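To: structure desk
From: M.T.
Subject: fold request, one chain
Message: Could you run this one when you get a chance? Sequence is below, nothing fancy, just the single chain.
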Amino acid sequence: MLLIFFGRLGWLGAPKNIAFKIIEPFASLFFNSHEFLSGQFATLFTLGDLIEESKNLRAHNLALIGENSALREKEEENKILRRRLELPLEKRPESEIAQIIGSSSQDGGYLIVNKGKNGGISDGMFAVTSQNFLVGKVVEANLFYSKILLITSNQSIVNVLSQETRVKGVAKGNQGLSLIMEMIPIAEEIKEGETVITSGLNDSAPQGIILGVISKIIFRETEIFKKAEIRPAVDFESLEKIFILKNPDSS
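Reply: Done. Structure tokens follow.
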């Protein structure tokens, strides 16, 4: 009651002003601190939202990259199949497309593909590219994969024919680098630059598959046979998919 009475008389004005003067800096500090902390919490929440949004965008981008990659691979496979289908019917017997999953330089070179007996593959079948270039021969067909001996391997032997002069011979692998066409009678005319194809004799490779081009003629006058070096048509380093030719009696 006394405080009310003194207040009406105006006697408390000075003490009140002094009290406000004392409290004012602390009140200002309190309100400023409150605003600062509120701003900091708001910033933290905003940063958290941005980080979460960034994670979601990254996950979405990775998913798109995966989808685009799968589409590109499918398109590449379709291009290979289209090139194969553009060949005349007689040059594209029944075949199975296979992905190369491994390789070895042993004995001049092998490829490992992801098709085996489960895909109708068996030993002795020949492998070609979509352009009908000879790659090699299946030498070991397992259930889910097969081993293919490259035509440039030392162990590879294929019956061949020079396309222009029609000279027959046998092409053997040469240290994984090229092929050597042997058993060419010395009197036979054969030329550099000729394309060499499979002859279709004594093996399961149909006639007309391209091995490569003759780059050099090798002969000695004292011998009854001459040889020809063949530069392979296949770029083995860039191979990704090949076609394995199925024998007519294998299906």
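Reply (cont.): The chain is about 30% helix and 30% strand. Let me know if you need anything else for the meeting.
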